[in-house]
Design goal:
2 domains, binds pyridoxal-5'-phosphate, four-stranded antiparallel beta sheet, single chain, Aspartate Aminotransferase, domain 2, Aspartate Aminotransferase, domain 1, 17 strands, alpha/beta, seven-stranded mixed beta sheet
């Protein structure tokens, strides 16, 4: 199996894209499904479903250790996915990619392995718009090691407050852990600027690309970050598979995260010799079909014109936000100019959960709640918001159906 990613076709044929997602032709509550919850998890194209099924049907075996044909085929396809991920992120080598269960595990890996190099009083800068996955592992480290967490605030329109960020960076800063794109507001962080500032004091930068890598082409070398994490199920791939990219020789310098099979070269009664990177960080049997399916998802994404895709998603979001402006008492959280295609909002006098449940009656799937971002909810003084997120397969009629469902839901409640 080749590790070459597909070449994109110019422009975006949304009808063609949509037709590749079997789930989108089903009904929900007697209505055509309108899926605007892709920021939580994206639906899967046939190419991914087929790739996973093909592994289960024809070439499934455990990877890396086998001496038989199936094991070799599975290993080759698994390692081809590593090459695809490296290319997708713009990394130099496949060896810079560690497969994980998702972004959460990738961040826990860095918190554990990089965290082992930190001591009491060392400082880590986070932002107020982080997902809990990029907060809780650092709290663990604070509890274990006495590191200090410092919080970069967001402005009223949902941008990262760069003056405040700059003021937080000191000689004690050892790491900045920051989202590429907020899963609540779509805000895009100025990663290159953050990296420059952090590197100037010798601090490393981890970028949570769980949303960013879905909505914009990523070049980790241009960003200059030390670590970049992604999660496969938001990239139109299977859940249970994600990845960590580590720049330079970070993986060589860090100690392994978990111990077990696959990550060793030799185990003796008196010690262990670790396997080479990246296998040193991949203890135990990995998710095999899912990683291969993730490779198929990256192929599929790279077959799209990513710039046309960004424009398409952006137009859907603009249409939705223009529609929201017609509602009395609507507030949109996150109003930055160049944000990615996510709209968080509330309607005065109606609870987000009630609105989401009523919209579901009309076949419209949106998310309501804190979106795993308690500090951001606290920042805006709200318990939760409604969130509509836009993907390659969404259309203008999805947007219109969602606005109509919202209108009806509102009329029940207010
Ligand atoms: C910005 C961000 N970071 C991290 C995660 C965690 O991803 P996963 O649960 O797949 O590990 C999510 C998922 O919603 C996210 O949106």
């Amino acid at each position: 199996m080749s590790a070459e990613l597909k070449q994109p076709v110019s422009g975006l044929d949304v009808a063609h894209v949509r037709a590749q997602f079997p789930i989108l032709s089903r009904e929900v509550n007697g209505k055509p499904l309108v899926y605007l919850d892709s920021a939580a998890s994206a639906q899967k194209p046939e190419a991914v479903i087929e790739a996973v099924a093909d592994v289960w049907r024809h070439s499934y075996a455990n990877v890396h250790r086998g001496l038989h044909t199936l094991a070799n085929e599975a290993t080759e396809a698994f390692e081809a996915s590593r090459g695809k991920m490296a290319r997708f992120l713009g990394a130099d080598h496949a060896d810079q990619i560690v497969f994980t269960r998702g972004a959460t595990e990738a961040i826990n890996l860095v918190a554990d392995s990089f965290g082992a190099t930190l001591g009491e009083g060392d400082e880590i800068i986070l932002s107020q718009m982080e997902h809990h996955s990029n907060i809780v592992p650092w709290h663990f480290l604070r509890e274990r090691k006495g590191v200090v967490l410092k919080w970069a605030p967001v402005t009223d329109d949902g941008a990262l407050d760069m003056d405040a960020f700059n003021a937080l960076v000191t000689e004690r800063t050892k790491l900045v852990a920051i989202t590429h794109m907020s899963n609540v507001m779509g805000t895009i962080s100025p990663i290159e600027t953050i990296v420059q500032k952090a590197h100037a004091v010798g601090a490393a930068v981890l970028v949570d690309g769980s949303q960013g890598a879905v909505h914009m082409p990523v070049d980790v070398k241009a960003l200059g970050c030390d670590f970049y994490v992604v999660t496969g199920h938001k990239l139109y791939g299977p859940n249970g598979a994600g990845a960590l990219y580590a720049a330079g020789d970070w993986l060589d310098r860090l100690r392994p995260y978990q111990g077990g099979g696959e990550m060793i070269a030799e185990v003796r009664e008196d010690g262990v010799v670790y396997a080479d990177v990246p296998h040193k960080f991949e203890a135990g049997t990995p998710v095999i079909a899912e990683v291969i399916g993730l490779g198929a998802a990256l192929d599929w994404m790279c077959g799209l014109d990513r710039i046309a895709l960004m424009e398409h998603e952006r137009q859907l979001m603009d249409r939705f936000e223009a529609g929201l402006a017609e509602f009395d008492g609507a507030t949109i959280y996150g109003r930055t100019q160049d944000k990615g295609a996510i709209t968080s909002f509330s309607l005065e006098g109606a609870h987000p959960h009630d609105l989401a449940q009523l919209m579901d009656k009309y076949g419209v799937a949106v998310r309501a709640g804190h979106h795993c971002a308690h500090p951001l909810m606290q920042r805006f003084g709200v318990p939760g918001t409604l969130r509509a997120s836009f993907a390659a397969y969404n259309t203008e009629s999805d947007v219109d159906a969602a606005l109509e469902a919202l209108r009806k839901a509102k009329s029940f409640l207010i």
